């Protein structure tokens, strides 16, 4: 029970201290909201809005979660407060889950910003929410653990933001957010399947308008694999770089 009390206190502390930091507001809220408005306004009709929702939802999650992790983990490591957390009598795995749970929740909340905007423009009654909501949670988790991987690989917040862009901006064009992967040059298509966002976006496309590339089961398995793999790699890096 004491472990879960520690988990909750770490979660609440991060929520109070970091959620409204400037990088989170700019990259995590304003930037995805601006992209959402731009694509919805540019869309030629209501049908186009529905096809754009999976992309802008994924984009909102990706930038929200990675921006939050780059602040919380990198800033605390630089300020030595993360070192004190490592002395707490809880397993490292639980500690990092506490540090990342806030970002996952932040990403899920971000996902519903474009969905609410789309609800005023088109009918969302045909959306398969039983598929879309688990996909949103897994996209938030995989993006958060990608942000954790980036955060434990650098020492400064601005380095984390720059390194995050190394992954984030290629994902915009390679993961099928706004145009099908089949339209990419042949030599770029294999790269698309190296990003977890590809599988999450594919699930959302299927849930929103029924045009996915892969079976849902394949997408969910791949996305879950990336979540586990990124989390374990991050734990390994923490043990190697930060724990002497």
Terminal residue distance: 29 Å
- CA-atom Rg in angstroms: 18 Å
Total strands: 0
Shape annotation: globular
- Helix fraction, binned, reads over 70%
- Biggest beta-sheet profile: none
Mean pLDDT, nearest integer? 80
Total count of domains: 1
Beta-strand share of residues: under 5%
Low-confidence stretches: none
Q: Strand pairing plus helix content: what structural class?
A: mainly alpha
What's the total helix number?
10
- SSE string, helix = H, strand = E? HHHHHHHHHH
Feature tags:
244 residues; mainly alpha; globular
3D structure, described in words:
The structure is a single chain. 41% of the residues are buried. The model has no long low-confidence stretch (mean pLDDT 80). With 244 residues, this protein is an all-alpha fold. Helix 1 packs across helix 5 (92-119). The protein is built from 10 helices and no strands. It has one domain.
SSE diagram, text form:
Elements: H1 2-18, H2 22-42, H3 46-78, H4 81-86, H5 92-119, H6 129-151, H7 157-174, H8 189-192, H9 196-209, H10 216-241
Helix pairs in contact: 1-5, 2-3, 2-5, 3-5, 3-6, 3-7, 3-9, 5-6, 6-9, 6-10, 9-10
Brief account:
With 244 residues, the chain is mostly helical. Helix content is 78%, strand content 0%.
